[in-house]
Amino acid sequence: VFFFNDTATTEIYTRRIVGSVRCVQETGILSSIFLAAFWPCIKLVTTQGMTTTAFGLTFCIQDVFLFTGPLVSGYVIDQTAGFNGGYFWATVLFSIFTGAATLFGGIVFCMDYSQGKILF
After folding, report:
1. For residues 23 and 73, is the Cβ–Cβ distance under 8 A?
2. Given this model, what pLDDT does residue 57 score?
3. pLDDT at 1 (0 to 100)
4. For the whole model, what pTM was predicted?
5. Does residue 13 contact residue 3 with C-beta atoms inside 8 Å?
6. Measured CA angle at 93 (ends 91, 94), to 5 deg
């Protein structure tokens, strides 16, 4: 809807597109690093009979977040468009997600350390 507004200047279009590309790049880089480390760990922590179920469940959860992530970030950008084009709060949102993933990784590391260092 915003892209078809006749009264907006080209500067607004360029700023929104560049900001969107930057958010997508950050998300792609962080996802690739996280998933490259995460997927091999599934085989190490599951029994042989539950490995395929664990991979399937992980794939489903990952796809739910990959589907809802752009919707949530788009909603945040649209609702906060008056402040720095909306991208400040989108960056805060991605920073919160990154912090949560780091916290989760730390918890997994501590649990693994206390149970015999299977993963690391």
Report:
1. yes
2. 92
3. 45
4. 0.57
5. yes
6. 65
